[in-house]
Design brief:
79% helix
Length: 131
């Protein structure tokens, strides 16, 4: 008997769940590019929270503490992102153009998420195909 074909073959790749999700997140921290991806996703999320939640709370609800707390966390994550970008660039021998693209992605809203798509693809390529 032939097993039923999965109508969504990429579903498990796009959204790991349960134990697989935990293993995927732990595996991300084991490689330089994985650390860059993880910190980039955290930094990008903190930037969006700062822009679209904390700033409106400050200016429309009179709550400046939201910007202070989220801004501080975002600042720490931004520095960690730059350190991870430098480490990944040196270990993977990236050209200056890629490093510049990573930096620009960190200062543009939604940029880290777009850069992450490229990083995920680059992470899967063998060393010979990257150059």
């Amino acid at each position: 008997m032939v097993p039923a074909r999965n109508p969504f073959p990429l579903q498990g790749c796009l959204r790991p769940r349960g134990k697989q999700a935990t293993e995927t997140l732990l595996f991300m921290w084991k490689t330089p590019i994985g650390r860059l991806r993880a910190v980039g996703l955290l930094e990008g999320t903190s930037f969006l929270v700062l822009l679209f939640i904390a700033m409106p709370l400050k200016y429309f609800a009179g709550m400046p503490l939201a910007v202070k707390l989220v801004g501080w966390a975002h600042g720490v994550l931004f520095v960690l992102y730059l350190l991870a970008l430098g480490h990944t660039a040196s270990s993977r021998q990236w050209p200056l153009l890629r490093v510049g693209a990573g930096f620009i992605a960190s200062v543009v809203p939604f940029g880290p998420f777009v850069f992450d798509v490229w990083l995920r693809r680059d992470e899967l390529l063998p060393t010979q195909e990257r150059q």
